[in-house]
Amino acid sequence: MTTARDLGARLRHLRKARQLTLSGLASLSGVAVSTISKIENGALSPTLDRVLRLAEGLDLTIGQLIGDAESGNDSPNSRFVPSRHGDGIVIDTRNYVYRYLCAELTNKRMVPIHARIKASSIKEFGQLEKHGGEEFLIVMDGEIVVHSEFYAPVTLKRGESIYLDSTMGHAYVSAGDRDAEVFCICTEPQRIERTDEVQPPQPG
């Protein structure tokens, strides 16, 4: 299991490898300097929206940020990775316990997450979260309430699901007397190709 300290050490390594200061990464990601510092020191487990924003700031996919290595076999014919019970990278936050599955694939177009929902009310959850991409969630056990920025709350029971735009503020809270279990698939935010208007001369 990946701890907050493990993830923090990896984030610091990736930031320094790109010769970025804390303020530089904060500017690129939109995550506060103090928050990045806490994550790097293992004092804070980042929520999914912060993981995605930090990955985008580092010009990485989420798999490259939380995975075991930056490189991998990206041949289309090699993308066949079973995930066994207990596999994945676990990050325990205030509201959710995330288990990122198939994390060894670093350039996935979607992020599969098995999660346990800890918050039992929107007041306990706090501010709605938002990040790039879209997501699909299905309730595997228990009952949840989906709160969002633009729609009335929706209650989902076991076997029921929802699809939403992740750039809209949203929160999942458990509606029963125990933590709910869900499976979620998030798409990576669309990455904009960075090209210069004037291409440099090519050799030859």
Can you tell me the CATH topology of the largest domain?
A: Jelly Rolls
What is the count of structural domains? 2
Radius of gyration: 18 Å
End-to-end separation in angstroms reads 51 Å
The tally of strands reads 9
Order of helices and strands: HHHHHEEEHEEEEEE
Q: Can you tell me the overall shape?
A: globular
Proportion in β-strands: 25-35%
How many helical stretches?
A: 6
Output the strand order for the largest sheet. Answer: 1-2-3-9-4-7
**Biggest β-sheet description:** 6 strands, antiparallel
The CATH top-level class label of the largest domain: Mainly Beta
CATH architecture of the largest domain: Sandwich
- The overall average pLDDT, rounded, is 84
Report the uncertain regions: 69-74, 192-204
Q: CATH-wise, what's the superfamily of the largest domain?
A: Jelly Rolls
Helix content, binned percent:
10-25%
Structural class: alpha+beta
What does this structure look like?
With 204 residues, the protein is α+β, with helices and mostly antiparallel strands. It has 2 domains: 4-66, 434 Repressor (Amino-terminal Domain); 76-187, Jelly Rolls (Sandwich), CATH 2.60.120. The chain contains 6 helices and 9 strands, in the order αααααβββαββββββ. The radius of gyration is 18 Å and the shape is globular.
